[in-house]
Specification:
heterodimer, A: about 190 residues, alpha+beta, Immunoglobulin-like, 2 domains, five-stranded mixed β-sheet, 11 strands, B: about 0% strand
């Protein structure tokens, strides 16, 4: 093979390899970032679910009060600066859950999804009215019949009680700080 | 990549990101009560959630128009990506809603990579 052709081939190959290396470098970086993001989210969710289950075991509290001969049981969820405690709560159909505001700002626990709050079943969300993006509200402080939504902020130290009459796993969040969320499992 | 294909890809990415930014901005102006929940406490204390939402809306519109203009779009693409990353990280508890933002974040990253040489 003539020398000039060999040199041309060498240069061509070198260019190809260099180009490939450069592209490969960019792809490696992008791939690594995407991979780390995915792994990060998976670890976060696994850790979060583990903590929530532990919290439920440790802090499952029952508030009992006697009305005539009947014992009314309301399970309590605390809204704290670190989220809802317990994060996951299991109850029976017809039981009540009381959210206690342990923060120094208003909290607004309401059904998923943010901001429409229409995940909880058995409610006519198309009925007239809405409030601050929530279709579960007829107006401020007035929820639609059976809706899982106080339709207002709960002041620090105050609480709000909701009775679950629908079986299922019901996600909720703080309408005023949607990073805080939890689940109530009704069986 | 074929130049025509590159242009189409860039246009689709730009349109997608700009649409998201404009929608979020207008929705935030029209119904702030539905959006203040995404504002972290420390920002609420510094600016007030509703004021910050308005400032954020103006920035989003500027970013969207810049991206649509097609001029030096590496920078707004990068800023949009950082913006999305911030929103996701500050609201991880609402990931059931924000998982879609991961797609927008990666679209912005793709646009930034695509436009890197043209900056």
């Amino acid at each position: 093979m003539p020398a000039f052709k060999l040199n041309w081939l060498k240069t061509y190959k070198a260019r190809l390899i260099m180009g490939y290396m450069n592209n490969r470098g960019i792809f490696k970086i992008i791939g690594a970032i995407v991979f780390l993001l995915i792994i990060g989210f998976v670890i976060f969710w696994l850790a979060k679910s583990g903590n929530e289950e532990n919290q439920q075991t440790n802090t499952d509290i029952q508030n009992e009060s006697t009305i005539k001969d009947e014992v009314v049981t309301s399970k309590i969820i605390y809204a704290t600066d670190n989220g809802y405690v317990p994060g996951i709560l299991s109850i029976k159909k017809g039981e009540s859950v009381t959210w206690v505001n342990s923060r120094n700002v208003d909290v607004w626990p309401a059904s998923a999804m943010h901001p429409t709050h229409t995940a909880y079943a058995g409610v006519d969300y198309e009925a007239e009215g809405s409030f601050k993006g929530s279709k579960a509200c007829a107006s401020e402080g007035n929820s639609k019949d059976g809706a899982f939504d106080p339709c207002m902020g709960i002041k620090p130290g105050q609480n709000w009680t909701f009775t679950f009459n629908q079986i299922g796993t019901w996600g909720y969040h703080d309408h005023l700080a949607s990073r805080f969320s939890g689940k109530v499992i009704v069986s | 990549m074929n130049m025509n294909k590159e242009k189409i890809v860039s246009l689709l990415l730009r349109a997608g990101i700009a649409f998201t930014l404009i929608y979020a901005s207008i929705a935030g102006f029209l119904n702030p009560g539905a959006w203040v929940g995404f504002i972290p406490d420390f920002i609420d204390k510094m600016f007030g959630a509703e004021l910050f939402l308005k400032m954020n809306g103006v920035i989003e519109i500027i970013l969207a128009l810049w991206i649509l203009s097609g001029k030096k779009i590496f920078y707004p693409a990068l800023i949009s990506g950082i913006f999305m990353f911030g929103i996701i990280m500050l609201n991880l508890g609402a990931f059931d809603i924000l998982f879609r933002d991961v797609a927008v974040l990666l679209m912005a990253a793709a646009l930034a990579v695509l436009e890197f040489d043209k900056k």
